[in-house]
Amino acid sequence: MTRMIEVRGLRFRYPDGTQALDGVDFHLDRGECVALLGPNGSGKTTFALHLNGLLFGEGSVEVCGSRVDANATAGVLADVRAKVGVVFQDSDEQLFMPTVLEDVAFGPSNQGLPAAAAADRARQALAQVGMGGASHKAPYHLSSGEKRRVALAGVLAMQPEVLVLDEPTTSLDPPGQRDLTALLRQLPQAKLLVTHDVDFAGALANRAVFFEHGRVAGEGTVAEMVTRFHWSRRSG
Amino acid sequence: MHHVVLERWSRGSSPLHARDPRAKLGALLIFLVAVSTTAPQSQVAFAGYALLLAAALSVSRLPVAGLLGRASLVLPFSATFVLITWWSGDPLRALALAEKSFLSGLAVLLTMATTPLVQSMSALASAKVPGPLLLVIQFLYRYLFVVSEQAQHMRMAALCRRGTGQRAQRSAARFHAAAGAVGVLFARSWERADGIYHAMLARGFTGRFPAAVAAPFGWRDAAFLCASAAASLAVRLQL
Questions:
Q1: What does pTM read for this prediction?
Q2: Residue A96: inside a domain
């Protein structure tokens, strides 16, 4: 197994003093799908932002062999951001260009592709998520499920090796969740799913990590984590 | 959301939309210079400028009432100067001031409504406008939409709870609520803008927006620029 992400002793404190991460150890191998479970405020999203070089804490974060820290050069960060695609919890934050096609082409354009090649890459990614017909629509005209797909296309267009999806099933209806599960199952990339949805996590992840108070409180299968941490809607 | 109307208009397919952004910006610049240097006594010239804009409006196939309404938003800003000039005993100059404000506002709006922002930025970049200034314009443009969107969400939430009902509370309480809402609006807009910036960084943003593919400056664009400039100058010189 090739190690894609290796995190050792990661700590991060927000400027207001909140200790969001308190010594996290984590790894993700090629082709693996890991679910990140845990209560609100346990540091899951903060952790995900470290993997793309959006936040820097103490400890070590390595992505495909490159060390990601505050001293990383612009070239290293660009490389890491090309390798790790983050789909944010709120799709509206991710869709900021006037049309769907321009938005999906934003990443490839930043990678230095000429406009026509970036547009081609965007069209392929849109077709991959079943949104090929929405190229010229304005993102704000899309439904929540469609926005989620377009946001995913925006990341897939960069051809990343790792996908980090933050609460991907939020605001999706059951058919939308089913479609997303099927779509993600087809994608070959290593995946990290930050989610509260244990059914979704159980359908995709072969391993689960449970976060609590900024630490890894447990690791195992999704079913094991659900039982151990009583992580289910059903009581008892 | 109505804040994207301008963006939607700019994606039209009229002959004016099809013109090269450099030609449109050049024509706009000449028009603005002509309007701003016209003497207040030349009321015929102002009528001529209005006719030119009416012709451009008709070619643009944009909703006239919507454009005129938005262009009139500039009037409250010039109203102070108009009134001071009027009270100082120069009503003709006051009228010309109002006319210049409105015509200039309408011309800028018409140009923006027929040119996608990315193309306008490309045209400005080709005119050697400094890159940092263009970046600031683009962020300002996009984040104004963010603030506007947040304001609309908050207004809807307030309306749902009758926050702006006719049977209003005491004015002090209303002022307190409005002040609080403005504070929350900016805090939420800040958070949203921060989220958008993170999402941009995550997709490799390095401080430059992707440039639009510049179409060749064709003979139609050159003809449009020459005709617009000639018309503006003809009206200015009252030929």
A1: 0.74
A2: no
